[in-house]
Amino acid sequence: MPTRRVKLDRIDRRILDDLQENGRMTNVDLARRAGISAPPCLRRVRALEEAGFIRGYHADIAPELLGYELTVFALIGLSSQAKADLQKFEQLVESWPEVRECHMLAGEADFLLKVVAENWDAYKTFVDERLTAAPNVNHVKTMQVLQTTKHRPGVPIDVDAVDEE
Amino acid sequence: MPTRRVKLDRIDRRILDDLQENGRMTNVDLARRAGISAPPCLRRVRALEEAGFIRGYHADIAPELLGYELTVFALIGLSSQAKADLQKFEQLVESWPEVRECHMLAGEADFLLKVVAENWDAYKTFVDERLTAAPNVNHVKTMQVLQTTKHRPGVPIDVDAVDEE
DNA sequence: TTAGAAACCGCAATTATATTGCGCAACTTT
DNA sequence: AAAGTTGCGCAATATAATTGCGGTTTCTAA
């Protein structure tokens, strides 16, 4: 059984940072920028994927061009917070394609949903026929996104951080 | 000046859907799945990128493994909503690496921020020394994410939708 | 400290992809 | 129907991704 590096060194951080910024960068470029040759670079990427540091790669698609003019964050309150009821709700959410993200929250509300819709009408239909119609949903507070002024992928990665351990 | 296809056909939608799901899929696979040969598939991808349908590609990094144990959504209210003041705030936000997303909202609050931090302590420092210290910030309502139960990239793409136009 | 193991690196060879240059067919536009 | 346009696929070429190995540095533990 091969030992698995737990601590990331400067090179790993550089790779993660580059891939977070440009997920389709070639391994050759990745290697050049990281200062090592292609083979070990590829091996590192594979290792980072297998160790779970990299959960996947995704193209960032423009919602408006695909017909989604409206983005909304909705705070959801449930009537019951029993484990089974929460899971029931999560399951339901999973089946709704217009809901892109679902975060369980502490205090205030129970869930924060990010929803995309063609327009306000489609959103209203979603709320009326899906959300409100769902059992256990107590209240829905809608917050319309007027403009997203910053959206960086994932996490900040300090490439120059001092290696620990 | 080359004409640019505006309407997406089934093949384009398939490509977008596949790349949204797996941003590092090879062009060969993309082509195979779309039912066309590699060259035209690559040309379509380039066209989709240039037309802005694809804004970029990003690796999805696991926050916890990078030391970010805490994710928070914060609702921010400003004292002044004058255009200049809003922009001032957005600029500030841009410079804070722990803020990954900033959405301007209608009603309720002025902005919704998604923030990642090593721990609660680091977040508190962020709020005290950056957010609250910033001019024009009136109030901050923090919502801690306990668990993200769904996070799909971007938008729903119905590959089988009927072509319009 | 020192032999052996472990973790990594880079070179060189091989396989797979990405890219380009064209000619062809379908579809429009006069 | 001639001419222009758009998009496809084949074939050739240029790049990239992978694999197999030998060599080096770093640990480990006797």
Automatic annotation (TrEMBL), chains A, B:
Q: Which Pfam families match?
A: AsnC_trans_reg, HTH_24
| A molecular-function term among this protein's GO annotations | sequence-specific DNA binding
Q: Give the matching SUPFAM superfamilies.
A: Dimeric alpha+beta barrel, Winged helix' DNA-binding domain
A single GO CC term, please? Answer: cytosol
Q: Show the CDD domains listed in the entry.
A: HTH_ARSR
Q: Which domain of life is it from?
A: Bacteria
Keywords of this entry: DNA-binding, Transcription, Transcription regulation
Where in this chain does the entry annotate a coiled-coil region?
A: none
Entry's Gene Ontology BP terms: regulation of DNA-templated transcription; response to amino acid
Q: Which residues belong to any copy of the HTH asnC-type domain?
A: 8-69
Q: Name the InterPro entries for this protein.
A: ArsR-like_HTH (IPR011991), AsnC-type_HTH_dom (IPR000485), Dimeric_a/b-barrel (IPR011008), Tscrpt_reg_AsnC-like (IPR019888), Tscrpt_reg_AsnC/Lrp_C (IPR019887), WH-like_DNA-bd_sf (IPR036388), WH_DNA-bd_sf (IPR036390)
The cross-references to PANTHER family, in alphabetical order and at most eight, read: LEUCINE-RESPONSIVE REGULATORY PROTEIN, TRANSCRIPTIONAL REGULATOR AZLB
- What is the recorded name of this protein? ArsR family transcriptional regulator
Q: Which organism is it from?
A: Oceanibaculum pacificum
Could you read off the lineage of the organism from its UniProt record?
Bacteria, Pseudomonadati, Pseudomonadota, Alphaproteobacteria, Rhodospirillales
